[in-house]
Fold this protein.
Amino acid sequence: MKKIPTISDVISQEERDLGKFQLRKVLPPNGGWLEAKLTNKHMDFLWKCIDKRHKEVHKDLAGNLHGSYSLQDKHNNLIFYEQVIQPLMVNWVDIYGDIVFRNTRMLGKMIPVLNDWWVNYQREGDFNPMHDHGGLFSFVIWMKIPTHWKEQKKLPRCAASNSNCVSNFQFLYTDYLGKILTSTYYMTPELEGTMLFFPAELKHQVYPFYDCKEERISIAGNVSSCPVPPNEKNSSRISINTIGSLYNV
Ligand SMILES: [Fe+2]
């Protein structure tokens, strides 16, 4: 029986060598966020901050919630910024690079500040539509979660759904092909004390929970850039220019 020639029978060694080359995997950076598990000491501090919350409902937020109250307090701001926010910011830049600071390059000597933070009270049916924040970085801390998403999923209005969104927190972002992706935090009491630290422009949303009379309590806030005040020229606070010189902003 006559053998059918393969391509190897009809090409030279030189031509076969054209099939040999080095490959290198290239993964373009697509950013991310930090997840921190706070200690009991952090939680005690934060509950004390909540005890001192302002009485007025915060009016500049996207949430459809029963209450959001400012936590602005000079002493608490200083402690929380120095002990929690600043280390998270330095770590974020160390891991993900300078992208968050690029728009501040031309603004001269600037420092990041905790310019706003607040406590949210979410009751059954409340939700926070897809939104982002202003400034450099934002964060959320879950203080009290009275529901478990698996129990929520069993409720009559949710059981037949092909979505697991009920009661959950979700980031939304595009991949390098422009496809919209989501990353979901499934709400359970075990997430109490978890803090997410992310670029302010990263979109996120919160779905409602149902059939629970207890409130979910979370803290959120923003880090923005502002000019160095004259009385802080010798401040130990890290400046954007310092981060910039470290990371070639
Ligand atoms: Fe938000």
